[in-house]
Amino acid sequence: MGTRKRERRISAARSDPPRISPRQGRSSARCGWISIFLFLFFVFASIVLLYLKAGKFRNFRSISEDSPILSVYERGLVKREITYGEVISENSRVSKNSSLRHFQNPILAYVTPWNSRGYELAEMFCFKLTHVSPVWYELKSDKTTYFLEGRHNYDSGWISRIKTNPNILVLPRVVLELFHSEMLKKVKLRQKVIDIIISECKQMGYDGIVLESWSIWAMHHVLHDIEMRRRAVEFVKEMAMALHSVNYSARTGRRLELIFVIPAVRSKHLREHDFGIDDFVQLVDFVDGFSLMTYDFSGPHNPGPNAPLPWIKSTLDLLLNDPAISPEAARKIFVGINFYGNDFLLSQDVGSEAITGRGYLSLLQKHKPALQWERESSEHFFLYEDDKNRRHAIFYPSLASISLRLDEARSRGASLSVWEIGQGLDYFFDLF
To answer: Is 127's pLDDT higher than 50?
Structure first.
């Protein structure tokens, strides 16, 4: 009897649901929604965290890889007041529009076999360039014969890739390492040298050459003799005419080109070996361009800017301030722009070494220096102390310094040559 009553009570307890007030119901539902919200928030936060971590290993630089990167002009980076942090964070961010040109005259870019980054950048920005000069060849002599060295550097795949720009010209640099003057004296020897170069252009499919010989002739006092200087100028004319006689493209009517490397005058008065206005006037109607080396102004014993703007202006004045010089002649001057810098040791043991973009960024990261604007030269520099407590001065190009030099070339109607593109920072290309 008592057992049945207990069973009935248990059964009633099981069958009758607990009584919940309306307030309790709303509270329970709220708790459920909060739990779901917290769970979803946790999942979303975990995904975002993993994405950001992965981004660091991909050198993550923006909210979305697909978002457009504005140019250095649009980002307000072309200025004199800059910080090391700005350079570090912005230098690798380049506008995606790699074919937009801000500088309309020809641009010659040098690349070197010892710097693979230059090859990559030439491909990436081939539509900004009109000429590319791989530094591949030396013309030498063993006193019985002449020969070219450097064909092993030839890279057909790379050339075909930069030729996606059908208007770009590939002109390898040829250094004339002939120290004796015998070649200049004899017509047959001069012709032999010319034939060797033209044969190489035909075999390898080049568009011409960049010839470097004036500095070597000056070093070995060839140009100090009036007659030898005349012969040297005549040889350059002969080389140009021979290259122009080769019409290598019936479709476009193109002929092989010659760009001649010339040093910039370093003093107010011309020295015997300097390339001056008379030489320019004699050659301007023959060669297709002059690669003007307006860099390396300072050295270990006179630390300072690499290419002071007043010096560049005075050099152009020397060559172009003549009523007889036409706009087309001015266009043949390829004003030299350095993409490298110099690290000067400011101590009793003076010295210097060239510094490229990678080394420059490393020093900025390590020393966190104050970047200063040198007004007279229009270049940025900074000071630091090395591990031996020796003071150094670093002069390295910046967006502002390059921009001013481009403005100067533009105002003269001149062109540009860059030594060499692999040594610079990527965002320099936004200026061109």
So the answer is: yes
Type of residue at 74: E
Task: Give the model's pLDDT for residue 397.
Answer: 98
In this prediction, residue 56 carries a pLDDT of 39
* AA identity, residue 77: L
pLDDT, one tens digit per residue, over 2-34 is: 433 333 333 333 333 333 344 444 444 444 555
Give pLDDT, residue 312.
98
Helix or strand or coil: residue 148? strand
Maximum distance among all alpha carbons in the chain? 142
What angle do the packed helices 309-320 and 399-412 form, to 10 degrees?
10
Contact 406, 315 (CB under 8 A): no
Report the pLDDT averaged over residues 332-340.
Answer: 98
E strands, 112-190, in order: 131-141, 146-149, 169-170, 173-176
List Cβ neighbours of 415 (8 Å cut-off, separation of 6 or more).
Answer: 105, 106, 107, 108, 289, 331, 332, 333, 334, 335, 409
Q: Could you write out the DSSP letters of every residue in 341-379? A: EEEEE-SSS-EEEEE-HHHHHHHHHHH-PPPEEETTTTE
Q: Can you give the pTM of this predicted structure?
A: 0.83
**Torsion angle of C-alpha atoms 188, 134, 405, 401, degrees rounded to 10:** -140
**In this structure, which amino acid lies at residue 182?**
E
Q: How many whole angstroms separate alpha carbon 424 and alpha carbon 418?
A: 10
Place of tokens 């122009």: 244
| Residue type (1 letter), 113 | P
| Domains assigned to the chain | 96-340+398-431 (3.20.20.80)
| Pairwise CA distance, residues 38 & 29, whole Å | 14
pLDDT score, position 8: 35
Contact of 199 with 246, CB cutoff 8 Å: no
User: Would you say 217 and 180 are in contact if contact means Cβ atoms under 8 Å apart?
Assistant: no
Q: Angle of helix 226-244 relative to helix 187-204, nearest 10 degrees?
A: 30
Among 173, 163, 72, smallest CA distance to 406 is for: 72
Which tokens in the block code for residue 181?
């003057």
